[in-house]
Amino acid sequence: MGEAGTNALIAEKSPYLLQHAHNPVDWLPWGEEAFRKARDEDKPIFLSVGYSTCHWCHVMEKESFESEEIAALMNRHFVNVKVDREERPDVDLTYMTFVQATTGQGGWPMSVWLTPDLKPMMGGTYFPPEDRQGRVGFPRVLERIAELWETEKEELLRQGDKITGMLREATGSRSAGETPGEAVFNAARTQLSSSFETEHGGFSRAPKFPRPVALNLLFRLSTAADSEAARCKEMALTTLREMGKGGMHDHLGGGFHRYSVDRYWHVPHFEKMLYDQAQLAVSYLEGFQIAGEEDFRGIAEGIFEYVRRDLTAPEGGFYSAEDADSLAHADAGEKIEGAFFTWTWKQLEEALGVGTSECKVFASAYGATPQGNVRPESDPIGELRGANVLFRDKRDGEVSAELGLGEREVAETLARVRERLREVQAERPRPHLDDKIITAWNGLMISALAKGYQVLGEESYLKEALRAAEFIHGNLRDASSGELLRSYREGPGKVPGFASDYAFLVQGLLDLYEATFELRWMRWALELQEVMESRFLDGEGGGYFSVSESSENSILSIVEDHDGAEPAPGSVAALNLLRLAAMTGSPRWGDRGGAVLRSASRVLDSAPVAMPQMAVALDFSLSGAAQIVIAAGDNWNAVRGDFVRAIYGKFRPRKTVIVLDGEEDRAFFAREAPAVSEMGPIEGKSGVYVCRDFTCQRPVTEVGELVIG
Predict the structure, then answer these.
(1) How many CB atoms lie within 10 A of CB 375?
(2) Strand, helix or coil at 322?
(3) Which end of the chain, C or N, has fewer beta carbons within 10 A?
(4) DSSP letter, residue 34
């Protein structure tokens, strides 16, 4: 231990590592010092991976890592290493692959025992401090592994070698197959339909996670000219409606919690992640484009307001997450999950007045009751007994009919009450904020804000996207090499960017270009794609490594084949490459996009529901996407807004847009597509060319003449 009861984590920047800096455990960060210590002392490594807003990570810390007795056991027998999964997704993915393969489940905290050469021997997730509820107690596991290390070390080492070899065979480069075809979409429709929960939406029972990548695919399938299109549309829209009504949606503060513990989207796990906000904002924007439902627009705006207010750094860029746990009041002894977000009946009456019309209207609309509204099966250990998790139980018209009030009066009352409750809530202790700025997640948010500007016309969204992009360019990009860093907190971090950082940021920059038509964002996207090719390309399979054995202290090479809470880097990169090909005319990027699709052919052909975002890229590839080229004329500034609204007002995912506004633009785009040099204004007016493979329709100069298809 260091001075004043600290350990080596005190010198780190990660909020998660700093949370553990005062544990009696002799934690070390991931790195050569820890590995050398394990080799020199001939001890196994205990690796603990989590993140700062993880509820069960907090539980295991309090129960075990703050215990002097358990810490002494850990320090005596192991070299103890703590990793922030958000800072080191490579370490997390490597050992989560092992845990899932050997236990059939995963999650955080992740607990893995390694040989001194970093090969996994045993692993799991959360361990309680003593045997209970079918789980072996953590001290007993520690003692047993320590005993085996003393008596059967050679067998453990052989086991580590064997497991690592099997994982290498299962996770590394995959031979490319043929380019997948339309059959992928038929299989995807069938698989998603078979798992769809008709009553409440979503694609599982409980727990129920938002899966924006599945909605992305369903919306694209909903535009097909076949009998299944309507079913795809309804599955996606039903899911958005039900999520929006549920308690997973924060009806006061905006944004979404991580997932629902029940099938009703009612009781959430209360942490809020930036990557969820970004992806769900896009889902609701697309839902609004398709269905025109004002609720969808309002939910997207609420997400953006939440991110602007609570997750935006003063210098630009977006913070990572807010915790599920917080203090019920300033003098409370310990944090409780959901304390910031839930309401007892007494708290509502104190805020709104006992028996007032405002209290009655709000309770009717948001399902609040004097006893609390949490079902027992959604709260098995009673943490939320007596609490109300707000959900939209009744629409304004239903409340109006129930209470005999005018619908306008109900709407005005609810708006007034929400504002009052936000004021009361603001006095509560806030959940912990993880103020790391992660490059990948900022890329997703830049995309969402750029699309928010395109669809809704709100200038402030574009300004926030630009600030974030400028921040990353100035603080998380190496000026000499062009390489990215993973994260920023009180200065740039030391960890280099991963495949997801490049893929997600390139996507964000392409969306930012299509919102601003400023060539600098296109140039940077191309620069980053070149770096991604050099650092992460799987030369044999054609896809991208998320983790590579060529990286320092890595024991596996992993090409991700699942779009989870975050899409796989290759899935996002495939669409990026195809968009770059369409926008620049470069066949190189089209060839690379096709290679990535072929690298995923085995999964797409057998289980496309595992990679819906890759299937989105396939849809773009097979559709013959429209290339919209606007040759700016003397009237461009005057008509720009009209054309942008016409292009983005409807759901048209199979398109790219470039603008030729000056000689620099024209020279850049004509380099790979000489036909661009022939596209000019029409009699001084801006000309809009709708092309496919740069074979173009007659240009138009009036919005009413524009036909995109």
Answers:
(1) 14
(2) strand
(3) C
(4) H
